[in-house]
Amino acid sequence: MKTPDATPLTLPVLPLDEAVLLPGMSVTMPVLLDEQAEAIDNAVDGRVVVVPRLSGVFSAYGTVAKLTGQISLPDGTRGVSLEALHRAELGPAIADDSLVVTVREIRDPDDVPEAAIALTAEYKAVVEEVAATRGDRRQVAGFLAAIDHPGRLADTAGYAPEIPPAHKAELLETVDVVTRLTKAIGFQRERLADAAVRQQIREDVTEGMEKSQREAILRRQLDAIRKELDEIDGTTSDDWRERIEAAQMPEAARTEAERELNRLERQPEG
Question: How high is the pLDDT of residue 125?
Fold first, then answer.
């Protein structure tokens, strides 16, 4: 059963440049623009509509948010805490004022299709795999387990810094729960693929560094062997084989030393 839309509201617009606030998110943000300060100061019953502004263009949808507190950030900047409630479709401006608009609040339906419920497990699995690459899988799994509505679950993609604002705005504008969750899974899979590539790069770099370190140690050991071979005159091959055996050097260094000794044995005495 679809939840009926709420009565239209008249709210001040709090613009969010190159960022998106999705329903269910709780954030603390700096107030950097006069437009933002004006919206906060003119909140209606403690509420504003937070609207993404990407590349200078406002989205047609925003998020009705409740002001839960104001603080002074460490650098002295004014800060505000927001609890995002519901997505909203923006209507016309009031009295030619672009910062006050009518909005049609849109709430997710209480009853959701079976298809959406089936997608929740896939979404959680993908997000947990992303978390595993960072070592916080258990914490993320606990966070996701506390969310039982598929629509709200899809909106948790708003917390992922790797997902571009344009993709988050697309989720904000997607009212249908099944479509939204499907898109969110796709965006999280892109995030997982990127995390896998980054992990492989880190492993390759580490492996390369370890290999270089091993080679440097072996080169120093071989240089020392060659120097000793050059400096000591009259030592027989058998003496050197005994020295190599007694040195208990690593297998790779020992093999190289024996190869060097065999080479020297084949050379003319001069």
Answer: 92
